[in-house]
Sequence to fold (124 residues):
Amino acid sequence: VQLQASGGGLVQAGGSLRLSCVASGRTLNNYDWSWFRQAPGKDREFVAAIRRSGGRTYYADFVKGRFTISRDNAKNTIYLQMNSLKPEDTAVYYCAAGTPILSSLREERAYGNWGQGTLVTVSS
Fold:
C-alpha cells in the first residue's frame, strides 16, 4: 500500500490542523493505521492509532483530549485532527499502516508501510 500524507503547516499555539493520509493499493480495512511524529533531534514516537477491526482508537498520553484519529473508508483516507496545538507538537508527522498485534501497536517496527511525512510547526 502506498501512503501520501499532507496537511502540515505553520500554526500558532492554540490553533488547529488536520492531517490527511491517502492510501492507494489496498483498502483501509486491511490494516491498522497510525500516526507517528519525529521532532528535531529526537526519536520517532507514537501519536495515535486506529484498528482495522472495530475502529478502536489509541493515543499517546501527551495528545489525549487534543488529537483525534479517524478514517473515511469511502475516500481511503486517514485523518489526524489536531487541536490546542503546542510548540512541543512541532515535528514531522508520518502515517503508517501495518498489522501489529495489540501489544506492538505503538511500536514503529510493527508497521511496514509509511508515508513521506508532513511538517507541522507550532509557533509560540
The first strand starts at residue 2 and ends at 6. The mean pLDDT is 94. The chain has no helices and eleven strands. Residues 71 and 78 are 4 Å apart (CA to CA).
